[in-house]
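Researcher: Sequence recovery benchmark, item below. Answer with residues only.
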């Protein structure tokens, strides 16, 4: 009798669960209580086992477990189906269009970014690695490690922003080279692009500006290597017809030092407003790394030599785009930005 009741319960409740639809899904909770609750039908039938002979109890117990598992799984599958349907309806109801409206206005890279990308590509093609360093720097890496001790007159040229006696906002990305020379073993070739800061402001100078500096350390480095590399770099940047001129100069961290001029890309050396009628533009400084700088960084200056160079990205972008005021880069004037397309 108990076995018949269990089979009938399984069949009747199974059909009842099948009839439940999404809109009356609360019925599932009622069915769960009606079958599995303290006063539920399956609970009551389970209690009837105590009146059975011992030899029938295993068979009936197995059937009770079978009915329980069957109905629980059936209810669980129904609930999952309702949850999925609910999610679909919710997504459909709450769907919003997150796409931007069409815009036919095409932008362009910032002139400084464009020059940086171009110079970086050229240098990487020549075997250089790109490294960066902190903009908040110590006096040691910004000056002392580059053979510019405290009270050295060359410091006056940089109008540095000091935070305290030892901490400053870097005035040159050469500080990155000083850091890298401490941790790298020659030979190596690196470029160091980034922002720099000096207390200087006029039509061609900004308190915030951008530099890219390069450093090569290896055996048997000479001025010929430096001039060859700079010639390739300038011709790839400004064009193969560019004329390069080297002039002697002074920097504390290079000896000998040179200034590098290039023929004006706007007038091709004939003379114009950009080059002030000279046909040439002063662009960068370079030189053979001073042996003292190598020794300060722990590099054997008797075995290794190096060359370094650096140029301002802002000035280079001004030359390439015939921009006469550096402030235009930072004003966000739409009239200027439209010209950069």
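Model:
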């Amino acid at each position: 009798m108990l076995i018949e009741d269990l089979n009938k319960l399984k069949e009747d409740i199974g059909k009842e669960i099948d009839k439940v639809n999404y809109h009356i899904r609360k019925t599932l909770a009622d069915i769960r209580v009606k079958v599995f609750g303290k006063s539920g039908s399956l609970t009551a039938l389970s209690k009837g086992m105590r009146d059975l002979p011992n030899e029938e109890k295993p068979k009936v117990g197995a059937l009770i477990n079978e009915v329980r598992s069957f109905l629980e799984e059936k209810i669980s599958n129904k609930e999952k189906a309702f949850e999925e349907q609910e999610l679909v309806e919710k997504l459909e109801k709450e769907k919003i269009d997150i796409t931007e409206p069409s815009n036919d206005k095409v932008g362009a890279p910032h002139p400084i970014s464009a020059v940086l990308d171009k110079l970086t590509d050229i240098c990487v093609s020549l075997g250089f690695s790109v490294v960066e360093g902190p903009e908040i720097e110590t006096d040691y890496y910004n000056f002392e490690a580059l053979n510019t001790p405290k009270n050295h007159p060359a410091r006056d040229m940089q109008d540095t922003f000091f935070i305290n006696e030892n901490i400053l906002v870097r005035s040159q990305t050469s500080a990155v080279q000083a850091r890298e020379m401490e941790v790298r073993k020659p030979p190596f070739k690196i470029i160091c692009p980034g922002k720099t800061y000096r207390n200087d402001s006029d039509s061609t100078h900004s308190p915030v500006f951008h530099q890219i500096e390069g450093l090569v350390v290896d055996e048997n480095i000479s001025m010929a290597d430096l001039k060859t590399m700079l010639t390739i770099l300038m011709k790839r940047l400004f064009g193969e017809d560019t004329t390069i001129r080297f002039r002697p100069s002074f920097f504390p961290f290079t000896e000998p030092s040179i200034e590098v001029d290039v023929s004006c890309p706007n007038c091709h050396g004939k003379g114009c407003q950009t080059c002030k009628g000279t046909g040439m533009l002063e662009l960068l400084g370079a030189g053979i790394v001073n042996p003292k700088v190598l020794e300060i960084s722990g590099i054997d200056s008797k075995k290794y030599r190096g060359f370094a160079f650096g140029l301002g990205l802002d000035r280079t972008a001004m030359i390439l785009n015939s921009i006469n005021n550096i402030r235009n880069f930072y004003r966000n004037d739409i009239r200027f930005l439209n010209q950069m397309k």
